[in-house]
Every structure is written in structure tokens, then in C-alpha cells.
Specification:
Layout lengths: L20 H16 L9 E3 L9 E3 L5 E8 L5 E6 H8 L6 E8 L4 E8 L9 E3 L14 E5 L9 E5 L2 E2 L2 H7 L2 H10 L17 H13 L5
Parallel strand pairs: 3-5
Antiparallel strand pairs: 1-2, 2-3, 4-8, 5-6, 6-9, 7-8, 9-10
Helix pairs in contact: 4-5
Length: 223
């Protein structure tokens, strides 16, 4: 259920049953996001994704936009490990791919310090780093993973909900994702081209619309 206002407090006790630090971070952050996050495109509440989904954590109940949550204790490092490199490359060209949530929290205060979304259309291959294949002795020998290089994500593509411990107004979060605004920001990207936008796109279609706009721009079909 969506909280009336964002609550920075975390329930760290949820992670006590797990030994793995990664698992602790996952369950703590997912529980917080389920209570506090909302869709930046339409403002709708989120529900947990399918349990067997590969890259889906939450779905907006109104516009059905999908989100994947990435979390960490402390601050995000420069490079954030992700899954298979080939799968990520395919994902960047798929307009139906989930958008990203990034959440960082402080263990001492048990509070979220930063929480922001990045629409997938603000990621391009320069943001993804190919890792070296696993050694022949590894269980998954030859597997090639990838890193998300955080400093390469355009600042204009980050939709903040919480920034340095400060909660942004709900209206400000949703307005940031407006079509005219994001089209203007997309023009500033190194791979962007001039594009004409329309205000007639409804809130519930904004994210999917913008994904198609930017993919088209990158393919050189919009001058």
C-alpha cells in the first residue's frame, strides 16, 4: 500500500533471517519501496512483480509501467554489478524494458538517504561496461556479466524522490517526468537529435511514449 508521504525509516529486522549481505539489502529495500515508492509517470501506486520475473520488481497498477530496484548500503559505488552483458544490451533496445529505481540507505540511522528513478531510455551502451568472462575453472565458465557505470548516467535522466536525505514533493517528482521536459532533456544527450513533442500524450502512456521517442532518435529516424 502506498504511504501518504514518504517515510525514510527502514525495517532492518527484515534482514535478520538472512546470512547473505546481498539478500539482506534486497528484502529491506524491497519492503521500503513497496510502502513508499510510486510511479513517476502517472503517480500511481506500485505492486510487487512476479516472483519468477528476471528483471521486474514492481509494476504500476495504473499505467502498468515496470521497475527494477537496485539497492546498496551506504553510497553507490562508481560501478554497479548487473546481470549478463548480452541480456542488458538486448534490454536497452527493448521499449518494454523496466525502468530502474536506485536506493541507498544508511545502516546506522536505518534511513534511506537517496532514492531516484532512471527511465531506461536515458541509458545507452556507453553506460554499460562489459566484464571479463569467468575463468574456465568457474562454475559458469565463460559467462560475461556487466556493470552499470553510475557516473555515466545523465544527471538530467535521474528522477529523485529522496536526495541526500531530503524528501521531494510528490508533485515535483511527477512533473519532472512530463513529456515536454524529458524531450528537451533528451536533446541534450550526446546521442540525441531534435524531436517534436506533443502534450496530448496522457500520463498513463508517458513512459512508453518517451521510450519510443528516444529509441527513434538514437536510430537516426528523427531529424
Amino acid at each position: 500500500m502506498l504511504a501518504p508521504e514518504i517515510d525514510l525509516s527502514l525495517n532492518l529486522a527484515l534482514g535478520e533471517r538472512y546470512k547473505s549481505g546481498t539478500q539482506k539489502v534486497r528484502v529491506i529495500s524491497e519492503a521500503w519501496a513497496e510502502r513508499n515508492a510510486f510511479c513517476f509517470s502517472c503517480g500511481g501506486p506500485l505492486k510487487s512483480g512476479r516472483n519468477n520475473a528476471r528483471v521486474l520488481d514492481f509494476t504500476c497498477v495504473n499505467c502498468h509501467n515496470d521497475f527494477e530496484l537496485k539497492s546498496t548500503r551506504g553510497n553507490f559505488s562508481n560501478k554497479l554489478p548487473d546481470g549478463a552483458f548480452s541480456a542488458m544490451m538486448a534490454r536497452l533496445s527493448d521499449v518494454s524494458s523496466p525502468d530502474f529505481f536506485f536506493l541507498a540507505y544508511d545502516v546506522t540511522s536505518a534511513c534511506v538517504t537517496n532514492f531516484f528513478a532512471v527511465p531506461t531510455y536515458f541509458l545507452d551502451p556507453t553506460v554499460i561496461e562489459r566484464r571479463k568472462p569467468l575463468s574456465p575453472d568457474a562454475r559458469r565458465a565463460g559467462w560475461v556479466g556487466c556493470n552499470i557505470v553510475m557516473h555515466r548516467i545523465p544527471e538530467v535522466g535521474k528522477v529523485y524522490y529522496v536526495r541526500n536525505g531530503n524528501i521531494l514533493q510528490r508533485s515535483a517528482v511527477i512533473e519532472t517526468e512530463g513529456v515536454p521536459f524529458l524531450v528537451e532533456q533528451a536533446k541534450r544527450l550526446p546521442y540525441g537529435r531534435t524531436v517534436r513533442s506533443t502534450n496530448r500524450v496522457p500520463h498513463t502512456e508517458r513512459s512508453r511514449f518517451m521510450k519510443r521517442v528516444v529509441r527513434t532518435m538514437n536510430q537516426g529516424k528523427v531529424k
